[in-house]
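re: the backbone from monday

yeah here it is again, tokenized this time
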């Protein structure tokens, strides 16, 4: 066999080189295509993850802005007990408030599942979300008629909405900043195709 190859080397060698090149190109193209498709799928999934996190955080922030309307209504109702049945109004407001807070908790749990618990920024984001929910609930508990100290003033003679602004509303910019940082990091990963 070796003797035959040596005798026919003028056409065997170029044919062998061509055949090996064809096999190499085919395998290389197949491998490259597979890798490119994998990167495209990963990038698409990351982009969907980014959009999902952005929507959930926007909803959480919106709720944290809307739920305090119940605080204002509750403090106003405590001031003006002009309704025929103030307990009905209080119950309605309480249901609206708890519904809003429950939606915020649902979003928080969803976001916890989206994020990596071993990274610092996600931990900070989750803590801010938790603090906002706890602060809102604390203010509400001090306003509800079931509380012995119920009034439109919560602490130190401040109206409930001022306490909300001090405790909750002041955390919204930090929440937005942490969210933006996480989204930017992921976007950079999408751009690099990592």
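seq for it, each position gets an aa:
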């Amino acid at each position: 066999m070796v003797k035959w190859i040596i005798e026919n080397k003028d056409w065997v060698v170029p044919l062998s080189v061509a055949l090996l090149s064809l096999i190499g190109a085919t395998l290389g193209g197949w491998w490259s295509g597979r890798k490119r498709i994998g990167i495209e799928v990963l990038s698409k999934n990351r982009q969907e993850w980014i959009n999902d996190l952005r929507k959930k955080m926007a909803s959480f922030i919106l709720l944290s802005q809307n739920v305090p309307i119940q605080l204002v209504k509750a403090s106003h109702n405590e001031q003006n007990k002009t309704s025929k049945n103030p307990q009905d109004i209080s119950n309605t407001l309480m249901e609206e408030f708890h519904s809003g807070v429950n939606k915020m908790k649902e979003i928080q749990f969803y976001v916890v599942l989206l994020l990596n618990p071993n990274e610092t920024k996600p931990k900070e984001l989750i803590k801010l979300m938790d603090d906002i929910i706890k602060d809102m609930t604390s203010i509400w508990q001090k306003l509800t008629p079931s509380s012995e100290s119920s009034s439109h003033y919560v602490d130190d003679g401040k109206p409930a909405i001022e306490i909300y602004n001090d405790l909750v509303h002041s955390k919204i910019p930090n929440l937005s900043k942490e969210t933006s940082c996480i989204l930017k990091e992921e976007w950079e990963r999408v751009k690099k195709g990592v």
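The CA atoms of residues 29 and 54 lie 37 Å apart. DSSP finds seven helices and no strands in the chain.
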